[in-house]
Amino acid sequence: MFLYKNVNILNYSEIKQKAARIKQEFSVLDYFQGLVKWGCLKYEGIHGKEHFFGYLEQRTGSIAVDDRSNVWYDHAAGLGGDIFRAVQVFENKSFVESVERLSGAFPVKKIIQKRPSEESPKIIVKKVTEISHDALINYIKRRGLDLEDIKPFAKEVHWRNKGNCYFAIGFPNESGGWVLRSSIFKGNILGGGISIQILGTPSGIKIFEGWFDFLSYLKLSGAADFKAVILNSTANLSFSLMLEILKERQNVELYLDNDPSGEKNTISFIKIAMLHSLCLENGLETDFDINTLKGNIDNVVKLIDNLENNLIGKKQILDNQSLVSDERINYRYFKDLNDCLKNHPSK
Q: Which of 62, 66, 53 has its CA nearest to residue 27?
């Protein structure tokens, strides 16, 4: 038997029955959209088959919601689960309280507008050194690079997780975590998100899917004066990040993969850039309503259509010169820049 606050006594069987019904009927996606409505989170859009949300202070959203499986996961905090776990984390309630909250026994209140407290870390970084392990050096060579190519940007990271020890090449990201790569491991620890590198005196912005694409570009081109935005995952290429980059008023070069995801994200970015540019020329608002767009390129087209009667026409938008360019033609016969380097290191 459970007794909490002023809620009626419920036996365990009744709680389980309520929980099972709620889990079937209540949408995790609807819950997170409710958090956005209350101003607790921001909506980042659809990437692949998942919806992404972020805390207000985050550059890019880290919370992925799978509407089909009805679950969520915060990649930065290492938290996730079902609808009850969401209420426990974001409203600081117990499991029993979360069942009653979703069944309507508690009035709906404005959610606490702060990031949930982090649990004790399960992952502990043991040491960070210069790259020296033979396995990692051989992995770098198989990627078409030399140790000297990667040394200025990466470290050898050793960490422990649930009693087991691991090591990999570690690249820093903007959330203070590590992007880890080796022949047997690919992932993030202590937070995910994009990475940024400023080389020389930047004369433009170049966007890469991953660190090895960035390093391959450096080796192939010898370029030294630009700002690099390394996504670490195309899921991080949110509309808010696109708009943030466009606000810098710099030429942007996209070096994404030659696959359906790279195609979709490239087209999306270019269309947003054209719309952004034309709005600037006509003195219109450029901070588009991301919640309305829902992160879907079809909604961007609808937004363009709706602007036809507001000084500008759709054809003008599509004909407008964009500061964003698709550079995939330079490695059109390869999967990505690293594949190009590995197969034609002399090009």
A: 66
